Amino acid sequence: MILLDWKLLYRLLHFVCHLLNSPVQNEAEPIRVVVTGAAGQIAYSLIYQIAKGDVFGPNQPVILHLLDITPMMGVLQGVVMEISDCALPLVRG
């Protein structure tokens, strides 16, 4: 039985994600998309659709700018973490 240290496993997964998300030549310039009320339920659904390529096309990278009011910052940080965890290849920032 092989036991992997969790730090080693994390680094390995990070490396694989980096390889999968590496830019492809002749790739379109990323567009900037601003989503207001980004911590809300409707925006939550829309953000995922944008990030996976359903809105602007499967080859259009995006840079997401998520805005909401100050009391919603905790929820918004959770949304940002979920989008990051998905490792969607079109999301550039």
Automatic annotation (TrEMBL):
Signal peptide limits: 1-28
Descriptive protein name: Malate dehydrogenase, cytoplasmic
Molecular function terms from GO: malate dehydrogenase activity
Family membership: Belongs to the LDH/MDH superfamily. MDH type 2 family.
Pfam families reported for this sequence: Ldh_1_N (PF00056)
Domain Lactate/malate dehydrogenase N-terminal: 32-90
Keyword terms of this UniProt record: Oxidoreductase, Signal
Transmembrane segments: none
Single GO BP term: malate metabolic process
